[in-house]
Design goal:
single chain; 11 helices; Rossmann fold; four-stranded antiparallel β-sheet; 252 residues; alpha/beta; binds magnesium ion; binds adenosine-5'-triphosphate; globular; six-stranded mixed β-sheet
Length: 252
């Protein structure tokens, strides 16, 4: 699995049509920046791709395979990783433990199985995993990782999510406003991590409102508006497109 594709994705909530036929693809080693005004449906699209929200019609492809019928856990085991607009962090665990959870997808094939059966094997592999956790935390500029997650800032939650993704060694990555609320060193850490994911061949969908931070990181951009991708292309052509300027920046 090296890329992501959405074919004619439709989604309504009750009578409200949110996605009216969304089409795009992201190749391995590529970052697509997805923009859209508040309520355009960006998070809905990420929830659909990751298997949390069902689509009404259309198809999601992860690599060669259509994801229909696969729940979010199966999609994760196939190499899909994501962050959440409202970060999902276990506050009663330390930052280190929260990040280690990512390895349950890539290395340990399910943390519960580790605890129930292979404790010996787990501890044998622990040294290498522990080093990886420290490395990915350093990558995102997350420090003092033995602190409880309940005691850290919102911006650090975002860094935990990115570090956890790095532990997953994913093939498809969906990032929902990863820079929002993050300080300067964290932003640099996320940018560095994006480079690592790209170099590892992951297909990355990056949603963020901050064009100044997003634009230099992406290979292509797409604008979601009125339920469809209305502009898509290289960064320069998007930023100068009249439709983009009218719809997103409010300049005609
Ligand atoms: N579970 C839900 N039930 C009903 N309506 C929903 C649900 N989730 C999202 N919506 C609606 O779908 C639309 C798209 O929401 P979504 O959160 O996907 O937008 P977004 O582009 O991520 O916006 P933002 O930039 O503010 O994060 C909005 O009108 C929202 O109110
Ligand atoms: Mg959103």
């Amino acid at each position: 699995m090296s890329y992501l594709r959405c074919d004619e994705v439709l989604k309504s909530y009750g009578g409200v049509k949110v996605l009216l036929g969304v089409n795009f693809e992201v190749n391995g080693g590529e970052i697509l920046g997805l923009l859209g005004t508040n309520g355009a449906g960006k998070s809905t699209l990420i929830d659909i791709i990751s298997g949390i929200t069902p689509l009404d019609s259309g198809a999601i492809y992860l690599g060669e395979h259509e994801a229909r019928g696969l729940g979010s856990e199966k999609r994760a085991y196939q190499g899909l990783a994501r962050t959440f607009q409202h970060p999902q962090v276990a506050k009663e665990l330390t930052l280190r433990e929260n990040v280690l959870i990512g390895a349950s997808v890539s290395e340990l094939k399910g943390l519960p199985r580790v605890f129930s059966s292979a404790l010996g094997g787990f501890f044998k592999g622990w040294g290498a995993l522990s080093e990886q956790v420290e490395q990915v935390c350093a990558d995102v500029a997350l420090t003092d990782i033995d602190r409880l997650a309940g005691e850290v800032t919102f911006g650090e939650f975002r860094l935990v999510e990115i570090a956890r993704i790095l532990m997953q060694k994913p093939k498809v990555v969906l990032l929902d406003e990863p820079f929002s609320g993050v300080g300067d060193s964290g932003i640099q850490g996320i940018i560095y991590s994006l480079g690592k994911l790209k170099a590892a061949g992951a297909a990355v969908l990056l949603v963020d409102h901050n064009i100044d931070i997003l634009a230099p990181q992406v290979d292509r951009m797409a604008l979601l508006a009125q339920g469809r991708i209305v502009v898509q292309g290289d960064v320069q052509s998007c930023l100068t497109s009249p439709v983009f300027r009218e719809t997103y920046i409010g300049v005609s």
